[in-house]
Amino acid sequence: MAPAKAALLAGVVLLLASCVSSVALYCSAQRAAFDGMRAELSRTAAMAATVVDADAHKQFVSPEQEASPEYRRAIAPLARILTASGDMKFVYTCVLRQDKVYFILDPTPAGDSNGDGVDDKSHIMDAYPEAPQSMIETLRTGIGGSDSKVYPDRWGSFMSGYAPLRDSQGSLVGIVGVDMNATQYLKHLEHLQRALWVGFVMALLMSLGAAICVYSYQRNAQAASAERLASAEALRRAHEELRQTNNDLEERVHLRTAELLVAYNATIEGWSRALEMRDHETEGHCRRVTDLALRMGEALGMNDDELNTLRQGALLHDIGKMGIPDEILLKPGALTESEWAIMRLHPEYAVQMLQPIEFLEPALDIPRYHHEKWDGTGYPCGLSGEEIPRAARLFALVDVWDALRSDRPYRRAWSHDRVCEHIRGLAGSHFDPALTEIFLDVVGEEQTDLPLAA
């Protein structure tokens, strides 16, 4: 083959290979980022839907009702979720009437935050003529979803997720929508696009270099062995640089995946803080039990993935209490038997809230089973012994420990030795005997006997 043809062929093959590889990595990274944002939107909307009283929601038909205690009570849980989430701009509910979309609940404060002369708050039965098709589909089918692209409006660039709102009979009464700021996602795409162009330029330069090397090699086929080796080394370096470029793009994909995991965990912590803002009696409880549960996990030799799942379950262990009415959850006195029956539903509420969120499924054992007892007298399922998942058996020890070591309005915190003796006495009835011994070794490392803050 003529030297010019060989050089051209080598350059074209190397250029095509590098371009295809770079585009494939870019598309993969773009899809991962977009799918991650849509999944987060769907999870957040499903979470918000669990705190709305759908039966009460049907009663709101007029803007005049916004001054009523019922309306303020209905938007309060949505306002707490909006406050706890950093990237969420709006959360609201909508209904479909005669093929037209109308707002019902909107905790957004009245006012003009962006200076366009339009009130930011949507009022009861305000029409939404520009409602996106994905919202209308959820209103018609009752199947949750999210926008398929970023859209700009007068507040910025956003993507929205939607979840169906069903009453106690299971009938569809509307949807809950959440609008998330897409600025970080768009910046991430800009970084990926710049990396792609850099990859193209490097591929072009390397292809040109490879073509020159091949051309020189063919023209000087009879040259000294050293010259041939030098050309081969140049081609090897070109391939190595291309491999490094592809590795850099792949690393960006892994980095974005790690950033999404951090964002998910931040969302979980926001939900935990929202619950503590509602029930001040247990303020700081989630943080303390999470720290102690992780110490137990390390003592049991759990790996990083198991510890992360344990951390998520500990933070969300009482998230089901978001579904318990204020008059029961915040009652200062003793609960009646019927009120206790409602309070014991919070593990099932947690399952209803978290089960649709796929990435949290491994962490469900603690919210669902941490009130089960070793002898089978716990709730909600009456499991016994090793039927109870290990994470829930571990967390039962941690939860009781922190409750007794913390001040409450009706009693002072117990001493370290008193709590240890109490827990040791419940081994084999309330607690797993083997885990109890390990737990007492872990908490025995404490050097102070001062009561913990409530």
TrEMBL record:
It holds the Pfam family HD_5. InterPro entries: Cyclic_di-GMP/3'3'-cGAMP_PDE, HD/PDEase_dom, HD_GYP_dom, HDIG_dom. SMART domains: HDc (SM00471). PANTHER family: CYCLIC DI-GMP PHOSPHODIESTERASE TM_0186, CYCLIC DI-GMP PHOSPHODIESTERASE TM_0186-RELATED. NCBIfam families: HDIG. This is Uncharacterized protein. It comes from Capsulimonas corticalis.
